[in-house]
Amino acid sequence: MKLIETLKNVWKITELKDRIILTLGLLLVYRFGAQVVLPGIDASQLSNLQAGAGEGILGLLNMFTGGAFANASVFALGIMPYISASIVVQLMGIAIPYLQKLQKEGASGQKKITQITRWLTIVICLFQAPGYLASLPTAFGIPQSAFLLGTGPTFYISSVIILVTGCVFAMWLGEKITDKGIGNGISLLIMVGIIATLPSSFIQNAASRLSGGGNGGLMMILIEIVIWFIIIMASIMLVMAVRKIAVQYARRTASGGYEKNVFGSRQFLPLKLNASGVMPIIFAQAIMFVPSLIGKSIDGSDAGQWMIAQFSDIFGLWYNVVFALLIIIFTYFYTAITVPTNKMADDLKRSGGFIPGIRPGTETSEYLDKIMSQITLPGSIFLALIAVFPAIIVKLMDVQAGWALFFGGTSLLIMVGVAIDTMQQVNSYLLNKHYDGLMKTGKNRKSVA
User: Fold this and answer.
1) Within 10 A of 265 (CB to CB), how many other CB atoms are there?
2) Spatial strand order in the sheet of 266-272
3) Of 419, 422, 442, the residue nearest 432 (C-alpha)
């Protein structure tokens, strides 16, 4: 089979093989750390925490940490503080001139931005770690007997240091995978954490279906798997879909000038249907914590009780209606700040390129901005539908909450996006060494070896 032959070719490339082995080794270290419980906590008495973290918004957080949150692990904070810090720095780059200057300085500026992100990650951890520890006996109902050394200052100080160190170590693992391994390390850590909870979620749902009592049995399990694959295909389409804008490049003359004629090379400028990736969903989910917090602050009123009831259930109607609207809004917002149509137009003009029928410069920028606005609307609606599909599948087919989260939302899009990115990385190595690629578009380059 061609796939087997391609996998054999992967191991023939020493550099690629070493990168894959290193990546797998560092991912294994991360998964091992997710099972190491904080010192001073009895792992056998965490059933209440695991039950509470298995549903609702906490279920999402536990999924992103690969179960470390529910295990009271040294990696309980996961890599999410680093993601939060990255988002904050990226948004601050819009308003703070110093960060804007760093963004234009190339590699040296990016190095400074990375350092700022690291320090901000530690600051966020210093706020999140005490909150997590304080919630263990109160919000999650872990009995006092589970704290072998008590809950005094010694436990809190040591545990905060360990949690912050665990997050920083996870961040270091991700950066090492990016530098020495294959693919985006931070994204791979999140994807591995998500995949780690997939088998148990599927087994629990399958056991519920096969237990009798009119739950559908084996046929419903097969139907769910088919629907799941369809949603994965739809997610791949969303990630890969582009609008190709025809670009004409002028032919360079012997005198060093440009001659704009029909003999110039014609290429395409790809504009992604979903240029913002999963960031709108992450932003929207962060905002969706606010209504329930407001409801708790005015718990005595009818409005407060209604907000708690409606926005604490991630599969509820109003939660998903507001969630979908926020995703559409944030998709436009994030696309506007991450797709620099002015810079694209300037780069085209400097390289002697132009869009047929459109004048270079301002008119090209306005044209690209118009096209981005047009394709962002269907992209944002499609993204919102995928994000709320877990709620739809729960209501229509009575799928268990843990398994339903894999039918859409951030988890599925992260898995699809990271898998495609990793395949493209491996594909580039194979093509550079004149082997057949993993991707369908890869060409056999043995003839030019």
Assistant:
1) 10
2) 266-272, 242-249, 353-354
3) 442
